[in-house]
Amino acid sequence: MCGIVGYVGMRPALDVVLAGLKRLEYRGYDSAGVAVLADGGLATAKKAGKLLNLEKELAERPLPTGPTAIGHTRWATHGAPTDANAHPHLDNAGRVAVVHNGIIENFARLRAELAARGHESASETDTEVVAHLLAEEFSSCADLAEAMRLVCRRLEGAFTLVAVHADEPDVVVGARRNSPLVVGVGAGEAFLASDVAAFIAHTRSAIELGQDQVVELRRDGITVTDFAGRPADVRGYHIDWDASAAEKGGYDYFMLKEIAEQPKAVADTLLGRVDASGSLTLDEVRISTSELREMDKVVIVACGTAFHAGLIAKYAIEHWTRIPCEVELASEFRYRDPILDPRTLVIAISQSGETMDTLMALRHAREQGSKVLAICNTNGSTIPRESDAVLYTHAGPEVAVASTKAFLTQLVACYLVALYLGQVRGTKWGDEIQAVVRELSRSSQDVERVLDTMEPVRNLARSLADKPTVLFLGRHVGYPVALEGALKLKELAYMHAEGFAAGELKHGPIALIEKDLPVVVVVPSPRGRSVLHDKIVSNIQEIRARGARTIVIAEEGDEAVAPYADHLIRIPATPTLLQPLVATVPLQVFACELATARGNEVDQPRNLAKSVTVE
Length: 615
Ligand code: M6R
Hints:
Layout: E1 3-8, H1 13-24, E2 31-38, E3 41-48, H2 51-60, E4 68-74, E5 89-90, E6 96-104, H3 107-116, H4 128-141, H5 144-152, E7 157-165, E8 168-177, E9 182-185, E10 190-193, E11 205-208, E12 213-218, E13 221-226, E14 235-238, H6 254-260, H7 262-270, H8 289-294, E15 297-302, H9 304-321, E16 325-329, H10 330-333, E17 344-350, H11 356-367, E18 371-376, H12 382-386, E19 389-392, H13 405-425, H14 430-452, H15 455-463, E20 469-474, H16 478-493, E21 496-501, E22 518-522, H17 530-545, E23 549-555, E24 567-571, H18 580-597
Helix pairs in contact: 4-5, 7-13, 7-14, 9-13, 9-16, 13-14, 14-18, 15-18, 16-18
The structure holds 5-amino-5-deoxy-1-O-phosphono-D-mannitol (M6R).
Protein backbone atom coordinates (compact mmCIF):
# COMPACT_ATOMS: atom_id res chain seq x y z
CA MET A 1 0.00 0.00 0.00
CA CYS A 2 1.45 3.31 -1.11
CA GLY A 3 4.62 3.55 -3.13
CA ILE A 4 7.49 5.69 -1.93
CA VAL A 5 10.57 6.89 -3.79
CA GLY A 6 13.47 9.08 -2.67
CA TYR A 7 16.57 10.10 -4.60
CA VAL A 8 19.76 12.08 -4.12
CA GLY A 9 22.46 12.18 -6.79
CA MET A 10 23.66 13.76 -9.98
CA ARG A 11 20.61 13.11 -12.18
CA PRO A 12 17.55 15.37 -12.35
CA ALA A 13 15.92 13.97 -9.22
CA LEU A 14 12.34 14.63 -10.29
CA ASP A 15 12.74 12.45 -13.41
CA VAL A 16 14.19 9.61 -11.36
CA VAL A 17 11.39 9.86 -8.81
CA LEU A 18 8.60 10.01 -11.42
CA ALA A 19 10.01 6.98 -13.27
CA GLY A 20 10.20 5.15 -9.95
CA LEU A 21 6.61 6.07 -9.08
CA LYS A 22 5.46 4.68 -12.42
CA ARG A 23 6.96 1.33 -11.43
CA LEU A 24 5.32 1.49 -8.01
CA GLU A 25 1.88 2.64 -9.08
CA TYR A 26 0.59 -0.91 -8.53
CA ARG A 27 0.98 -0.22 -4.78
CA GLY A 28 -1.69 2.48 -4.75
CA TYR A 29 -3.22 4.79 -7.27
CA ASP A 30 -5.58 7.13 -5.42
CA SER A 31 -3.27 10.14 -5.73
CA ALA A 32 0.38 10.99 -6.32
CA GLY A 33 2.81 13.73 -5.43
CA VAL A 34 6.44 14.85 -5.45
CA ALA A 35 8.71 17.30 -3.65
CA VAL A 36 11.99 18.63 -5.09
CA LEU A 37 14.70 20.51 -3.24
CA ALA A 38 15.87 23.37 -5.43
CA ASP A 39 17.04 26.98 -5.15
CA GLY A 40 17.24 26.83 -1.35
CA GLY A 41 13.60 25.84 -1.00
CA LEU A 42 11.10 23.08 -1.47
CA ALA A 43 8.79 22.79 -4.49
CA THR A 44 5.88 20.34 -4.50
CA ALA A 45 3.10 19.12 -6.75
CA LYS A 46 0.37 16.64 -5.90
CA LYS A 47 -2.83 15.49 -7.52
CA ALA A 48 -5.73 13.17 -6.74
CA GLY A 49 -6.15 10.21 -9.11
CA LYS A 50 -3.55 8.32 -11.07
CA LEU A 51 0.02 9.35 -11.66
CA LEU A 52 -1.05 10.61 -15.08
CA ASN A 53 -2.89 13.50 -13.40
CA LEU A 54 0.29 14.51 -11.60
CA GLU A 55 2.27 14.28 -14.85
CA LYS A 56 -0.27 16.58 -16.56
CA GLU A 57 -0.02 19.01 -13.68
CA LEU A 58 3.79 19.00 -13.95
CA ALA A 59 3.59 19.55 -17.71
CA GLU A 60 1.42 22.62 -17.14
CA ARG A 61 3.29 23.91 -14.08
CA PRO A 62 6.82 22.49 -14.14
CA LEU A 63 8.83 22.32 -10.93
CA PRO A 64 12.44 23.54 -10.78
CA THR A 65 15.08 20.85 -11.22
CA GLY A 66 17.35 19.73 -8.42
CA PRO A 67 19.40 16.73 -7.28
CA THR A 68 17.15 15.68 -4.39
CA ALA A 69 13.50 14.63 -4.51
CA ILE A 70 10.88 12.37 -2.97
CA GLY A 71 7.62 11.04 -4.36
CA HIS A 72 4.55 9.05 -3.38
CA THR A 73 1.67 7.16 -4.91
CA ARG A 74 -1.15 6.67 -2.43
CA TRP A 75 -3.63 4.05 -1.30
CA ALA A 76 -5.85 6.10 0.98
CA THR A 77 -6.28 5.18 4.65
CA HIS A 78 -6.86 8.43 6.57
CA GLY A 79 -8.72 11.00 4.51
CA ALA A 80 -10.33 10.76 1.09
CA PRO A 81 -8.18 10.66 -2.06
CA THR A 82 -8.10 14.43 -2.66
CA ASP A 83 -5.36 16.84 -3.74
CA ALA A 84 -5.05 18.09 -0.16
CA ASN A 85 -4.65 14.60 1.30
CA ALA A 86 -2.14 13.51 -1.34
CA HIS A 87 1.48 13.24 -0.17
CA PRO A 88 3.99 14.88 0.33
CA HIS A 89 2.83 16.73 3.43
CA LEU A 90 4.60 19.84 4.63
CA ASP A 91 5.12 21.70 7.89
CA ASN A 92 3.56 25.14 8.21
CA ALA A 93 6.73 26.91 7.04
CA GLY A 94 6.96 24.68 3.95
CA ARG A 95 10.55 23.60 4.77
CA VAL A 96 9.95 19.89 5.47
CA ALA A 97 8.25 17.42 3.12
CA VAL A 98 7.33 13.89 4.12
CA VAL A 99 5.79 10.86 2.40
CA HIS A 100 4.42 7.89 4.31
CA ASN A 101 3.20 4.34 3.93
CA GLY A 102 1.29 2.73 6.81
CA ILE A 103 -0.84 4.02 9.65
CA ILE A 104 0.19 6.23 12.57
CA GLU A 105 -2.14 5.01 15.26
CA ASN A 106 -1.59 7.82 17.77
CA PHE A 107 -1.94 10.60 15.18
CA ALA A 108 -5.12 12.07 16.70
CA ARG A 109 -3.37 12.72 20.03
CA LEU A 110 -0.26 14.06 18.30
CA ARG A 111 -2.38 16.35 16.12
CA ALA A 112 -4.18 17.74 19.16
CA GLU A 113 -0.82 18.43 20.84
CA LEU A 114 0.48 20.14 17.69
CA ALA A 115 -2.69 22.24 17.42
CA ALA A 116 -2.21 23.34 21.02
CA ARG A 117 1.27 24.52 20.07
CA GLY A 118 -0.12 26.54 17.15
CA HIS A 119 0.36 24.19 14.20
CA GLU A 120 -2.34 24.27 11.54
CA SER A 121 -3.32 21.15 9.65
CA ALA A 122 -3.80 21.31 5.91
CA SER A 123 -5.10 17.75 5.44
CA GLU A 124 -7.09 14.99 7.12
CA THR A 125 -4.16 12.54 7.02
CA ASP A 126 -2.26 10.92 9.83
CA THR A 127 0.94 11.62 7.89
CA GLU A 128 0.86 15.38 8.25
CA VAL A 129 1.67 15.26 11.97
CA VAL A 130 5.09 13.85 11.05
CA ALA A 131 5.95 16.90 8.93
CA HIS A 132 5.08 19.22 11.83
CA LEU A 133 6.96 17.11 14.37
CA LEU A 134 10.03 16.91 12.13
CA ALA A 135 10.02 20.68 11.75
CA GLU A 136 9.88 21.13 15.53
CA GLU A 137 12.72 18.69 16.18
CA PHE A 138 14.84 20.05 13.33
CA SER A 139 14.56 23.54 14.72
CA SER A 140 16.57 22.43 17.77
CA CYS A 141 18.97 19.80 16.33
CA ALA A 142 19.42 21.03 12.70
CA ASP A 143 19.90 17.40 11.62
CA LEU A 144 17.09 15.71 9.69
CA ALA A 145 18.20 12.15 10.50
CA GLU A 146 18.29 12.96 14.22
CA ALA A 147 14.92 14.72 13.97
CA MET A 148 13.52 11.60 12.30
CA ARG A 149 14.83 9.36 15.10
CA LEU A 150 13.29 11.60 17.73
CA VAL A 151 9.95 11.68 15.94
CA CYS A 152 9.86 7.92 15.28
CA ARG A 153 10.25 7.24 18.98
CA ARG A 154 6.95 9.06 19.50
CA LEU A 155 5.00 7.30 16.76
CA GLU A 156 2.82 4.24 17.24
CA GLY A 157 1.70 1.95 14.41
CA ALA A 158 3.27 0.84 11.17
CA PHE A 159 5.11 3.30 9.02
CA THR A 160 7.65 3.91 6.34
CA LEU A 161 8.59 7.57 6.21
CA VAL A 162 10.79 9.43 3.78
CA ALA A 163 11.53 13.11 4.30
CA VAL A 164 13.58 16.04 3.03
CA HIS A 165 14.31 19.45 4.55
CA ALA A 166 15.10 22.61 2.60
CA ASP A 167 17.99 23.36 4.99
CA GLU A 168 19.70 20.03 4.12
CA PRO A 169 19.35 20.01 0.33
CA ASP A 170 21.62 16.99 -0.27
CA VAL A 171 19.99 14.64 2.21
CA VAL A 172 17.05 12.23 2.08
CA VAL A 173 16.07 10.49 5.29
CA GLY A 174 13.95 7.35 5.63
CA ALA A 175 12.58 5.37 8.55
CA ARG A 176 10.98 2.00 8.78
CA ARG A 177 8.73 0.15 11.20
CA ASN A 178 6.64 -2.77 9.90
CA SER A 179 6.42 -1.39 6.39
CA PRO A 180 8.82 -2.03 3.52
CA LEU A 181 11.70 0.27 2.55
CA VAL A 182 14.80 -0.64 0.54
CA VAL A 183 17.90 1.38 -0.27
CA GLY A 184 19.45 1.38 -3.75
CA VAL A 185 23.18 2.05 -3.81
CA GLY A 186 24.62 3.74 -6.90
CA ALA A 187 27.91 5.52 -7.67
CA GLY A 188 27.51 9.05 -6.34
CA GLU A 189 23.78 8.55 -5.93
CA ALA A 190 21.35 6.70 -3.68
CA PHE A 191 17.72 5.66 -3.80
CA LEU A 192 15.00 4.80 -1.33
CA ALA A 193 11.87 2.95 -2.33
CA SER A 194 9.11 0.65 -1.17
CA ASP A 195 10.23 -1.87 -3.76
CA VAL A 196 13.44 -2.35 -5.78
CA ALA A 197 11.40 -2.03 -9.00
CA ALA A 198 11.57 1.74 -8.50
CA PHE A 199 15.35 1.92 -8.98
CA ILE A 200 16.28 -1.32 -10.77
CA ALA A 201 16.92 0.67 -13.98
CA HIS A 202 19.79 2.47 -12.19
CA THR A 203 21.33 -0.02 -9.79
CA ARG A 204 21.05 -3.68 -8.80
CA SER A 205 22.82 -3.18 -5.52
CA ALA A 206 20.46 -2.88 -2.56
CA ILE A 207 20.42 -2.74 1.23
CA GLU A 208 17.70 -4.23 3.39
CA LEU A 209 16.56 -1.95 6.16
CA GLY A 210 15.61 -3.66 9.40
CA GLN A 211 12.74 -2.82 11.72
CA ASP A 212 12.98 0.46 13.59
CA GLN A 213 15.87 1.81 11.57
CA VAL A 214 16.57 5.27 10.17
CA VAL A 215 18.64 5.74 7.03
CA GLU A 216 20.33 8.92 5.88
CA LEU A 217 21.15 9.14 2.17
CA ARG A 218 23.80 11.48 0.82
CA ARG A 219 25.48 11.32 -2.58
CA ASP A 220 28.66 10.04 -0.99
CA GLY A 221 27.36 7.78 1.72
CA ILE A 222 24.55 5.95 3.45
CA THR A 223 24.20 5.80 7.23
CA VAL A 224 21.85 3.44 9.01
CA THR A 225 21.03 3.60 12.72
CA ASP A 226 18.32 2.37 15.01
CA PHE A 227 15.78 4.82 16.43
CA ALA A 228 18.16 5.49 19.33
CA GLY A 229 20.98 6.50 16.98
CA ARG A 230 23.12 3.37 17.41
CA PRO A 231 24.83 2.28 14.18
CA ALA A 232 23.02 -0.67 12.62
CA ASP A 233 24.39 -3.72 10.83
CA VAL A 234 23.86 -3.19 7.13
CA ARG A 235 23.14 -6.15 4.87
CA GLY A 236 23.62 -5.53 1.17
CA TYR A 237 22.34 -7.81 -1.58
CA HIS A 238 22.31 -8.09 -5.35
CA ILE A 239 18.95 -7.85 -7.13
CA ASP A 240 18.85 -10.85 -9.43
CA TRP A 241 16.32 -9.60 -11.97
CA ASP A 242 16.73 -6.70 -14.35
CA ALA A 243 14.67 -3.74 -15.50
CA SER A 244 13.04 -5.64 -18.36
CA ALA A 245 11.39 -8.00 -15.85
CA ALA A 246 9.49 -4.99 -14.50
CA GLU A 247 8.30 -3.86 -17.98
CA LYS A 248 5.21 -4.95 -19.90
CA GLY A 249 7.33 -6.46 -22.68
CA GLY A 250 4.84 -5.81 -25.50
CA TYR A 251 1.74 -6.99 -23.60
CA ASP A 252 -1.20 -4.64 -23.07
CA TYR A 253 -1.23 -5.40 -19.36
CA PHE A 254 1.19 -6.75 -16.79
CA MET A 255 -1.44 -9.37 -15.97
CA LEU A 256 -1.32 -10.79 -19.51
CA LYS A 257 2.46 -10.89 -19.37
CA GLU A 258 2.42 -12.55 -15.98
CA ILE A 259 -0.12 -15.17 -17.09
CA ALA A 260 2.12 -15.93 -20.07
CA GLU A 261 5.19 -16.21 -17.84
CA GLN A 262 3.67 -19.03 -15.78
CA PRO A 263 5.35 -21.99 -17.51
CA LYS A 264 8.76 -20.43 -16.86
CA ALA A 265 7.84 -19.38 -13.31
CA VAL A 266 6.75 -22.93 -12.48
CA ALA A 267 9.94 -24.40 -13.99
CA ASP A 268 12.15 -21.83 -12.21
CA THR A 269 10.57 -22.59 -8.87
CA LEU A 270 11.48 -26.26 -9.25
CA LEU A 271 15.02 -25.51 -10.34
CA GLY A 272 17.80 -26.77 -8.08
CA ARG A 273 15.50 -28.40 -5.58
CA VAL A 274 16.29 -32.02 -6.38
CA ASP A 275 19.80 -33.48 -6.07
CA ALA A 276 21.47 -36.04 -8.33
CA SER A 277 20.07 -38.92 -6.26
CA GLY A 278 16.51 -37.63 -6.66
CA SER A 279 16.18 -36.38 -3.06
CA LEU A 280 14.66 -32.99 -2.35
CA THR A 281 17.19 -30.48 -1.05
CA LEU A 282 15.44 -27.40 0.20
CA ASP A 283 18.58 -25.60 1.34
CA GLU A 284 16.79 -22.49 2.49
CA VAL A 285 14.60 -24.52 4.88
CA ARG A 286 16.76 -23.99 7.93
CA ILE A 287 14.61 -26.00 10.29
CA SER A 288 16.47 -29.18 11.18
CA THR A 289 15.20 -32.52 9.98
CA SER A 290 14.93 -33.71 13.58
CA GLU A 291 12.68 -30.74 14.39
CA LEU A 292 10.57 -31.42 11.30
CA ARG A 293 10.19 -35.06 12.36
CA GLU A 294 8.84 -33.89 15.73
CA MET A 295 6.13 -31.67 14.24
CA ASP A 296 2.64 -32.92 14.98
CA LYS A 297 0.63 -30.21 13.22
CA VAL A 298 0.98 -27.84 10.30
CA VAL A 299 -0.86 -24.51 10.25
CA ILE A 300 -0.89 -22.43 7.08
CA VAL A 301 -1.60 -18.69 7.31
CA ALA A 302 -2.11 -16.45 4.30
CA CYS A 303 -4.50 -13.97 2.67
CA GLY A 304 -6.44 -13.81 -0.59
CA THR A 305 -4.95 -15.82 -3.40
CA ALA A 306 -2.11 -17.06 -1.18
CA PHE A 307 -4.78 -18.42 1.20
CA HIS A 308 -6.25 -20.40 -1.70
CA ALA A 309 -2.79 -21.85 -2.37
CA GLY A 310 -2.73 -22.85 1.30
CA LEU A 311 -6.13 -24.57 1.02
CA ILE A 312 -4.75 -26.69 -1.84
CA ALA A 313 -1.54 -27.39 0.09
CA LYS A 314 -3.59 -28.91 2.91
CA TYR A 315 -4.74 -31.76 0.65
CA ALA A 316 -1.13 -32.53 -0.38
CA ILE A 317 0.36 -32.18 3.10
CA GLU A 318 -2.19 -34.42 4.78
CA HIS A 319 -2.14 -36.98 1.97
CA TRP A 320 1.64 -37.22 1.67
CA THR A 321 2.69 -36.75 5.29
CA ARG A 322 -0.33 -37.75 7.39
CA ILE A 323 0.25 -34.66 9.58
CA PRO A 324 -2.95 -32.75 10.37
CA CYS A 325 -2.93 -29.41 8.55
CA GLU A 326 -5.09 -26.36 9.28
CA VAL A 327 -5.38 -23.42 6.92
CA GLU A 328 -6.36 -20.08 8.35
CA LEU A 329 -6.95 -16.58 7.04
CA ALA A 330 -4.03 -14.65 8.51
CA SER A 331 -6.33 -11.78 9.44
CA GLU A 332 -8.36 -14.07 11.74
CA PHE A 333 -5.55 -16.16 13.12
CA ARG A 334 -4.19 -14.42 16.18
CA TYR A 335 -7.58 -13.16 17.33
CA ARG A 336 -8.95 -16.62 18.06
CA ASP A 337 -6.15 -17.72 20.39
CA PRO A 338 -4.93 -20.60 18.20
CA ILE A 339 -3.32 -23.65 19.83
CA LEU A 340 0.38 -23.44 18.97
CA ASP A 341 3.53 -24.92 20.43
CA PRO A 342 7.06 -25.85 19.34
CA ARG A 343 5.68 -28.93 17.58
CA THR A 344 3.52 -26.84 15.27
CA LEU A 345 5.02 -25.91 11.92
CA VAL A 346 3.48 -22.67 10.70
CA ILE A 347 3.72 -21.95 6.98
CA ALA A 348 3.20 -18.30 5.99
CA ILE A 349 2.51 -17.84 2.27
CA SER A 350 2.91 -14.39 0.73
CA GLN A 351 3.89 -13.11 -2.70
CA SER A 352 4.95 -9.69 -1.47
CA GLY A 353 6.36 -10.77 1.88
CA GLU A 354 4.87 -7.58 3.31
CA THR A 355 1.20 -8.43 3.96
CA MET A 356 0.61 -7.08 7.44
CA ASP A 357 -2.05 -9.65 8.41
CA THR A 358 0.31 -12.50 7.54
CA LEU A 359 3.23 -10.82 9.26
CA MET A 360 1.23 -10.38 12.46
CA ALA A 361 0.08 -14.01 12.31
CA LEU A 362 3.63 -15.30 12.00
CA ARG A 363 4.84 -13.07 14.83
CA HIS A 364 2.10 -14.47 17.01
CA ALA A 365 3.09 -18.02 16.08
CA ARG A 366 6.75 -17.40 16.90
CA GLU A 367 5.83 -15.84 20.23
CA GLN A 368 4.08 -19.13 21.07
CA GLY A 369 7.28 -21.05 20.26
CA SER A 370 6.26 -22.38 16.83
CA LYS A 371 8.68 -22.49 13.92
CA VAL A 372 7.64 -20.49 10.86
CA LEU A 373 8.48 -21.37 7.28
CA ALA A 374 7.76 -18.60 4.76
CA ILE A 375 6.86 -19.25 1.15
CA CYS A 376 7.58 -15.95 -0.51
CA ASN A 377 8.36 -14.34 -3.86
CA THR A 378 10.16 -11.22 -2.68
CA ASN A 379 13.76 -11.46 -1.65
CA GLY A 380 14.64 -9.66 1.53
CA SER A 381 11.04 -8.74 2.40
CA THR A 382 9.81 -8.70 5.99
CA ILE A 383 7.97 -12.03 6.16
CA PRO A 384 10.96 -14.22 5.18
CA ARG A 385 13.28 -12.07 7.29
CA GLU A 386 11.17 -12.70 10.36
CA SER A 387 10.63 -16.41 9.69
CA ASP A 388 12.81 -19.32 10.80
CA ALA A 389 13.12 -20.54 7.23
CA VAL A 390 12.07 -19.56 3.74
CA LEU A 391 11.35 -21.23 0.44
CA TYR A 392 11.45 -18.60 -2.30
CA THR A 393 9.16 -18.94 -5.29
CA HIS A 394 10.98 -17.81 -8.40
CA ALA A 395 8.11 -16.11 -10.18
CA GLY A 396 10.00 -12.86 -10.82
CA PRO A 397 8.34 -9.53 -10.11
CA GLU A 398 4.54 -9.65 -10.12
CA VAL A 399 3.20 -6.19 -10.85
CA ALA A 400 -0.49 -6.68 -11.71
CA VAL A 401 -2.60 -6.44 -8.58
CA ALA A 402 -4.34 -9.72 -9.43
CA SER A 403 -2.01 -12.53 -8.50
CA THR A 404 -1.41 -15.16 -11.20
CA LYS A 405 2.12 -16.51 -11.60
CA ALA A 406 2.74 -16.06 -7.89
CA PHE A 407 -0.20 -18.39 -7.19
CA LEU A 408 1.08 -21.17 -9.44
CA THR A 409 4.56 -20.94 -7.96
CA GLN A 410 3.12 -20.91 -4.43
CA LEU A 411 1.43 -24.20 -5.30
CA VAL A 412 4.72 -25.63 -6.55
CA ALA A 413 6.48 -24.50 -3.38
CA CYS A 414 3.72 -26.01 -1.22
CA TYR A 415 3.99 -29.34 -3.06
CA LEU A 416 7.76 -29.26 -2.52
CA VAL A 417 7.35 -28.59 1.19
CA ALA A 418 4.78 -31.38 1.49
CA LEU A 419 7.06 -33.84 -0.32
CA TYR A 420 10.04 -32.72 1.75
CA LEU A 421 8.10 -33.36 4.95
CA GLY A 422 7.16 -36.76 3.54
CA GLN A 423 10.82 -37.45 2.77
CA VAL A 424 12.09 -36.32 6.17
CA ARG A 425 9.40 -38.19 8.10
CA GLY A 426 9.56 -41.27 5.90
CA THR A 427 5.87 -41.23 4.95
CA LYS A 428 6.80 -41.21 1.25
CA TRP A 429 9.34 -43.46 -0.42
CA GLY A 430 12.06 -41.94 -2.56
CA ASP A 431 10.63 -43.37 -5.79
CA GLU A 432 7.17 -42.00 -4.92
CA ILE A 433 8.66 -38.55 -4.36
CA GLN A 434 10.58 -38.75 -7.63
CA ALA A 435 7.39 -39.72 -9.48
CA VAL A 436 5.57 -36.65 -8.17
CA VAL A 437 8.55 -34.40 -8.92
CA ARG A 438 8.56 -35.75 -12.50
CA GLU A 439 4.87 -34.86 -12.80
CA LEU A 440 5.56 -31.43 -11.30
CA SER A 441 8.33 -30.86 -13.84
CA ARG A 442 5.87 -31.73 -16.62
CA SER A 443 3.34 -29.21 -15.34
CA SER A 444 5.28 -26.34 -16.87
CA GLN A 445 4.60 -27.77 -20.35
CA ASP A 446 1.00 -28.52 -19.37
CA VAL A 447 0.47 -24.88 -18.40
CA GLU A 448 1.99 -23.89 -21.75
CA ARG A 449 -0.51 -26.13 -23.53
CA VAL A 450 -3.41 -24.60 -21.64
CA LEU A 451 -2.22 -21.13 -22.61
CA ASP A 452 -2.12 -22.16 -26.26
CA THR A 453 -5.82 -23.05 -26.25
CA MET A 454 -7.35 -20.01 -24.56
CA GLU A 455 -9.03 -18.29 -27.53
CA PRO A 456 -12.46 -19.92 -26.91
CA VAL A 457 -12.20 -18.93 -23.23
CA ARG A 458 -11.60 -15.31 -24.23
CA ASN A 459 -14.56 -15.42 -26.65
CA LEU A 460 -16.75 -16.90 -23.96
CA ALA A 461 -15.68 -14.25 -21.44
CA ARG A 462 -16.55 -11.44 -23.84
CA SER A 463 -19.99 -12.96 -24.42
CA LEU A 464 -20.69 -12.83 -20.68
CA ALA A 465 -19.65 -9.22 -20.15
CA ASP A 466 -23.18 -8.07 -19.28
CA LYS A 467 -23.99 -10.85 -16.81
CA PRO A 468 -24.35 -9.75 -13.19
CA THR A 469 -23.21 -12.99 -11.55
CA VAL A 470 -20.98 -15.99 -12.19
CA LEU A 471 -20.79 -18.97 -9.83
CA PHE A 472 -17.85 -21.38 -9.50
CA LEU A 473 -18.07 -24.96 -8.23
CA GLY A 474 -15.41 -27.50 -7.40
CA ARG A 475 -14.72 -30.51 -5.23
CA HIS A 476 -11.55 -31.60 -3.41
CA VAL A 477 -8.63 -29.45 -4.72
CA GLY A 478 -11.06 -28.08 -7.29
CA TYR A 479 -12.91 -26.28 -4.49
CA PRO A 480 -10.07 -23.80 -3.71
CA VAL A 481 -9.63 -23.42 -7.48
CA ALA A 482 -13.30 -22.38 -7.66
CA LEU A 483 -12.71 -19.88 -4.83
CA GLU A 484 -9.71 -18.49 -6.71
CA GLY A 485 -11.72 -18.20 -9.95
CA ALA A 486 -14.41 -16.24 -8.09
CA LEU A 487 -11.85 -13.97 -6.40
CA LYS A 488 -10.22 -13.14 -9.73
CA LEU A 489 -13.58 -12.23 -11.23
CA LYS A 490 -14.58 -10.05 -8.27
CA GLU A 491 -11.36 -8.09 -8.14
CA LEU A 492 -10.97 -7.63 -11.90
CA ALA A 493 -14.46 -7.58 -13.43
CA TYR A 494 -16.27 -6.17 -10.34
CA MET A 495 -18.93 -8.85 -10.85
CA HIS A 496 -20.71 -10.80 -8.19
CA ALA A 497 -18.91 -14.12 -8.10
CA GLU A 498 -19.02 -16.93 -5.54
CA GLY A 499 -17.08 -20.14 -5.23
CA PHE A 500 -18.77 -23.16 -3.63
CA ALA A 501 -17.86 -26.70 -2.76
CA ALA A 502 -20.12 -28.55 -5.21
CA GLY A 503 -21.27 -30.88 -2.44
CA GLU A 504 -22.73 -27.88 -0.62
CA LEU A 505 -25.02 -26.99 -3.50
CA LYS A 506 -28.03 -28.78 -2.12
CA HIS A 507 -27.50 -27.16 1.28
CA GLY A 508 -28.45 -23.71 -0.03
CA PRO A 509 -26.59 -22.30 -3.02
CA ILE A 510 -28.69 -24.22 -5.56
CA ALA A 511 -31.45 -21.72 -4.82
CA LEU A 512 -29.36 -19.16 -6.71
CA ILE A 513 -29.53 -21.10 -9.96
CA GLU A 514 -31.81 -19.58 -12.57
CA LYS A 515 -32.08 -19.55 -16.33
CA ASP A 516 -28.86 -18.63 -18.09
CA LEU A 517 -26.79 -18.11 -14.94
CA PRO A 518 -23.18 -18.92 -15.89
CA VAL A 519 -21.71 -21.57 -13.60
CA VAL A 520 -18.10 -22.65 -13.97
CA VAL A 521 -17.44 -26.19 -12.76
CA VAL A 522 -13.96 -27.57 -12.10
CA VAL A 523 -14.18 -31.32 -12.66
CA PRO A 524 -11.76 -33.70 -10.91
CA SER A 525 -10.04 -36.36 -12.97
CA PRO A 526 -12.11 -39.52 -13.54
CA ARG A 527 -8.81 -41.41 -13.22
CA GLY A 528 -8.31 -40.22 -9.64
CA ARG A 529 -11.14 -40.54 -7.16
CA SER A 530 -13.83 -41.67 -9.58
CA VAL A 531 -16.47 -41.23 -6.88
CA LEU A 532 -15.70 -37.48 -6.78
CA HIS A 533 -15.92 -37.28 -10.55
CA ASP A 534 -19.26 -39.05 -10.66
CA LYS A 535 -20.66 -36.82 -7.96
CA ILE A 536 -19.69 -33.63 -9.73
CA VAL A 537 -21.20 -34.91 -12.99
CA SER A 538 -24.45 -35.28 -11.05
CA ASN A 539 -24.04 -31.73 -9.70
CA ILE A 540 -23.64 -30.42 -13.25
CA GLN A 541 -26.80 -32.22 -14.29
CA GLU A 542 -28.67 -30.78 -11.32
CA ILE A 543 -27.79 -27.17 -12.09
CA ARG A 544 -28.33 -27.61 -15.82
CA ALA A 545 -31.79 -29.00 -15.17
CA ARG A 546 -32.52 -25.69 -13.42
CA GLY A 547 -31.40 -23.58 -16.35
CA ALA A 548 -27.73 -22.84 -15.53
CA ARG A 549 -25.32 -22.26 -18.40
CA THR A 550 -22.58 -24.73 -17.58
CA ILE A 551 -18.94 -23.90 -18.27
CA VAL A 552 -17.04 -27.08 -17.56
CA ILE A 553 -13.30 -27.39 -17.02
CA ALA A 554 -12.41 -31.04 -17.49
CA GLU A 555 -9.35 -33.03 -18.42
CA GLU A 556 -8.73 -34.26 -21.95
CA GLY A 557 -10.43 -37.58 -22.54
CA ASP A 558 -13.12 -37.09 -19.91
CA GLU A 559 -16.12 -37.76 -22.14
CA ALA A 560 -18.66 -38.32 -19.34
CA VAL A 561 -19.06 -34.58 -18.73
CA ALA A 562 -19.35 -33.54 -22.36
CA PRO A 563 -23.14 -34.01 -22.74
CA TYR A 564 -23.80 -31.63 -19.83
CA ALA A 565 -21.39 -28.86 -20.76
CA ASP A 566 -22.65 -25.80 -22.61
CA HIS A 567 -18.99 -24.79 -22.87
CA LEU A 568 -16.19 -27.29 -22.42
CA ILE A 569 -12.70 -26.11 -21.50
CA ARG A 570 -10.13 -28.88 -21.82
CA ILE A 571 -7.06 -29.13 -19.60
CA PRO A 572 -4.25 -31.72 -19.75
CA ALA A 573 -4.63 -34.83 -17.60
CA THR A 574 -2.61 -34.52 -14.38
CA PRO A 575 -2.48 -36.37 -11.07
CA THR A 576 -5.46 -35.30 -8.94
CA LEU A 577 -3.46 -33.22 -6.45
CA LEU A 578 -1.63 -31.30 -9.19
CA GLN A 579 -4.72 -30.37 -11.20
CA PRO A 580 -4.95 -26.83 -9.73
CA LEU A 581 -1.75 -25.95 -11.64
CA VAL A 582 -3.60 -26.29 -14.93
CA ALA A 583 -7.24 -25.72 -13.91
CA THR A 584 -6.57 -22.22 -12.54
CA VAL A 585 -5.11 -20.85 -15.76
CA PRO A 586 -8.38 -20.67 -17.79
CA LEU A 587 -10.00 -18.89 -14.84
CA GLN A 588 -7.26 -16.23 -14.84
CA VAL A 589 -7.68 -15.70 -18.59
CA PHE A 590 -11.48 -15.63 -18.20
CA ALA A 591 -11.37 -12.92 -15.51
CA CYS A 592 -8.79 -10.83 -17.35
CA GLU A 593 -10.80 -10.88 -20.59
CA LEU A 594 -14.09 -10.12 -18.82
CA ALA A 595 -12.47 -7.16 -17.07
CA THR A 596 -11.16 -5.88 -20.39
CA ALA A 597 -14.56 -6.34 -22.04
CA ARG A 598 -16.17 -4.35 -19.23
CA GLY A 599 -13.64 -1.55 -19.69
CA ASN A 600 -11.99 -2.05 -16.31
CA GLU A 601 -8.40 -1.30 -15.38
CA VAL A 602 -6.88 -4.78 -15.49
CA ASP A 603 -3.62 -4.11 -13.70
CA GLN A 604 -4.99 -1.67 -11.17
CA PRO A 605 -8.51 -2.67 -10.12
CA ARG A 606 -10.46 -0.11 -8.15
CA ASN A 607 -9.98 0.15 -4.37
CA LEU A 608 -7.13 -2.37 -4.34
CA ALA A 609 -3.37 -2.28 -3.96
CA LYS A 610 -0.81 -4.96 -4.62
CA SER A 611 0.80 -5.00 -1.25
CA VAL A 612 -1.49 -4.73 1.77
CA THR A 613 0.77 -3.34 4.47
CA VAL A 614 -1.97 -2.29 6.88
CA GLU A 615 -4.19 -4.61 8.91
O1 M6R B 1 1.47 -10.53 -1.13
P1 M6R B 1 0.53 -11.55 -0.59
O2 M6R B 1 0.63 -12.86 -1.32
O3 M6R B 1 0.64 -11.74 0.89
O4 M6R B 1 -0.91 -10.96 -0.86
C1 M6R B 1 -2.06 -11.62 -0.38
C2 M6R B 1 -3.31 -11.06 -1.03
O5 M6R B 1 -3.45 -9.70 -0.74
C3 M6R B 1 -3.30 -11.25 -2.56
O6 M6R B 1 -3.13 -12.59 -2.91
C4 M6R B 1 -4.61 -10.71 -3.19
O7 M6R B 1 -5.68 -11.50 -2.76
C5 M6R B 1 -4.52 -10.69 -4.70
N1 M6R B 1 -4.81 -9.38 -5.19
C6 M6R B 1 -5.46 -11.60 -5.39
O8 M6R B 1 -5.29 -11.58 -6.77
